[in-house]
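sanity check both lines:
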Amino acid sequence: MITYEYPLNERIRTLLRLEDLFERSRHFIARTDPHDHHMALLTLFEILEVSSRADLKSDLLQELERQKQVLLAFKNNPDIQEDALNGVLRDIEQAAAALFSMTGKIGQYLRENDWLMSIKQRTGIPGGACEFDLPSYHYWLHRPAEDRTGQLAAWTGPLHPLRDGSAIILRILRESGRPQALTAPQGMYQQMLGGKSAQMLRLRIDATTPCVPEISANKYVLNIRFMAQNGDDATAETRPRTADWNVGFELTFCNL
């Protein structure tokens, strides 16, 4: 199955972007090739840009506290596994404490690093990080892999409270809904929402089904159009068309 997630507000959109970037960062830092570490650094710059939203930290802290209060209401409920509940509460408290300890503007220590900012500026130019543009960076890329790995971890580590706080909120959000098995006749599906509130949609479709969903939604109506793909070649240059068969899929409305 392939899962497609569609955020319905800017806050969830930001958290999903951060999740994707931190996962990419973890992947490239763990490798040793200079090209991988170059990608790790570019990803760090992207994390810095996405996390620069002034209210991100306070949003995360408020949501973690709200979820903590919701979960505390389930204490002593015989239908709830006490160990699992305590584990989630412990994760929330640790994530909130780490976020609270982040002082000043997010990523300011990176912005005050002139060397990193010179690289960031040049990487905004296509091919701008060549050795003749940034000889000191070229030298750094030829340092031992363990040295580069240590520095990348040191630059990325202080941002991990954002990663951990986001991960908890997204986990709770994903687990909040119940999937429905649905069918899109001739590749088209519409549902009137009638005031139903959601912060994210999760759509799952069999990986062998040669189509991808295009989703649009507002507080009144949800529209999904499944666009046919060309078999094994998803990049074939043909005009996009709606799937002309009934497409089975699974849909979940997620809400905190």
Observations:
- The chain has two domains: 6-173, 177-254.
- The two ends are 24 Å apart (CA to CA).
- The chain has a mean pLDDT of 90.
